[in-house]
Amino acid sequence: TWKWVVGPMFLYLCERLVRFWRSQQKVVITKVVIHPFKTIELQMMKKGFKMEVGQYIFVKCPAVSKLEWHPFTLTSAPEEDYFSIHVRIVGDWTEGLFNACGCDKQEFQEAWKLPKIAVDGPFGTASEDVFSYETVMLVGAGIGVTPFASVLKSVWYKYCHDAINLKLKKIYFYWLCRDTHAFEWFADLLQSLEAQMQERNNAEFLSYNIYLTGWDETQATHFVVHHEEEKDVITGLKQKTLYGRPNWENEFKTIAGKHPGSRIGVFLCGPEGLADTLNKQSISNSEADPRGVHFIFNKENF
């Protein structure tokens, strides 16, 4: 038995040593941004840190717990001179991090008072392949929108600096949320992209649809009253927030009709049930003819 065990155990120990060495490297928190509804953004720098879109890291804060590591998706783009994560305060560890960063205090927090942070990673995900397609569908459910913050930022940087050689030509973005709380920080990014694309006369590059799935009658009434206003009352975007869930069959058929003969990447960060639905739609709406339209499904679950 030992002959079969010793090889994998040696590789496992090597991998643990590499991860321990990486986690001991110095990480500097350069900025802490407090977003509405107890969401904080940590901007950090680390020597030799290289990332791709949609990747994630493990984070440890010894001031909160000396043993706990927690995974967070990177929300910055590779083109930026820092890397960042967004943390929503929903438990004991995140509450401890919130307090350790001085976010519970009104006065300005000095940089040297910020806690030490250990970072292991980054680690890859399916979202890294987004630049391999000319057309993509990005579907984020709730907090599963975080990897697409990195994707959209990176796409914009690449578009601004070398739009001619950028293979990606069209993005269909879907965001499903149960309540309005999660809209706050990400809506700011979409507003910025929306304004910049209009300035460059290419508003069609990004098509986005935001769905509020946990609505009630009061919200629906408010939605109807303000639907004719220029900007959405929830997100501040020109694209109106939709209530309920998408009709995925209609969405896939519409996109297939607009891009015949294309390979379309479908990227999901969300629950397993939604993954099954999108996988089935990707298969049923792909043509048998190799020259026809094909949907390539990629997922990461939480």
From TrEMBL:
Gene Ontology biological-process annotations: defense response; monoatomic ion transmembrane transport; superoxide anion generation
Subcellular localization: Cell membrane
Catalytic activity, reaction form: NADPH + 2 O2 = 2 superoxide + NADP(+) + H(+)
Annotated GO MF terms: metal ion binding; superoxide-generating NAD(P)H oxidase activity
Keywords: Cell membrane, Electron transport, FAD, Flavoprotein, Glycoprotein, Heme, Ion channel, Ion transport, Iron, Isopeptide bond, Membrane, Metal-binding, NADP, Oxidoreductase, Phosphoprotein, Transmembrane, Transmembrane helix, Transport, Ubl conjugation, Voltage-gated channel
PROSITE patterns tied to this protein: FAD_FR
InterPro entries: Cyt_b245_heavy_chain, FAD-bd_8, FAD-bd_FR_type, Fe_red_NAD-bd_6, FNR_nucleotide-bd, RBOH/FRE, Riboflavin_synthase-like_b-brl
Keyword flag Zinc-finger: no
Obligatory cofactor(s): FAD
Bilayer disposition of the protein: Multi-pass membrane protein
GO CC terms of this entry: monoatomic ion channel complex; NADPH oxidase complex
Keyword flag NADP: yes
Record-annotated FAD-binding FR-type domain positions: 19-129
Function summary: Catalytic subunit of the phagocyte NADPH oxidase complex that mediates the transfer of electrons from cytosolic NADPH to O2 to produce the superoxide anion (O2(-)). In the activated complex, electrons are first transferred from NADPH to flavin adenine dinucleotide (FAD) and subsequently transferred via two heme molecules to molecular oxygen, producing superoxide through an outer-sphere reaction.
Protein name: NADPH oxidase 2
